[in-house]
Design goal:
- This protein has 132 residues and is an all-alpha fold.
- The chain has one domain.
- 91% of the residues lie in helices and 0% in strands.
- It has 3 helices and no strands.
- α2 runs antiparallel to α3.
- It is rod-shaped.
């Protein structure tokens, strides 16, 4: 039976149907309000998430910059250490040559041998001083 038929045949049922219709409209309004509140909350959550994402991206970019600086400093350090190694090898070679010359002085004058030992000691002292 349709709503019109109900009204024709049961006029007393009209106020009940009207109350039921009002209740349905009120329920739809309450559902709409709840959905709107949920939508507003989801928008706020989305905004917070976007803000957090921006902060995380900024942090990532900062860490990338710091990592690049750190890598550059490590390369500089490795280069300096390699140079120190090369200088040490050169100094050892010079010292070995000087020692060899000193060892090869056979029967030369004591003054010459003493002056070569002093020169070798001075060279050793200079090399020690340049390494500190």
């Amino acid at each position: 039976m349709s709503l019109v038929e109900q009204n024709l045949y049961a006029p007393k049922a009209a106020p009940e149907r009207q109350a039921q219709a009002i209740a349905e409209v009120q329920k739809m309004h309450d559902d709409f309000s709840a959905c709107k509140e949920e939508c507003d909350q989801l928008k706020a959550d989305l905004n917070r998430s976007e803000d957090r994402l921006t902060m995380v991206i900024d942090e990532r970019n900062r860490l990338r910059r710091e990592l690049k600086i750190y890598q550059e400093k490590l390369i500089e350090l490795a280069t300096a250490m390699s140079n120190i190694g090369l200088l040490t090898n050169t100094a050892q070679s010079v010292m070995a040559s000087a020692q060899e010359l000193l060892d090869n002085v056979d029967g030369g004058s004591e003054d010459r041998k003493t002056s070569m030992e002093k020169a070798l000691a001075n060279l050793d002292k200079d090399l020690d001083g340049s390494q500190h």
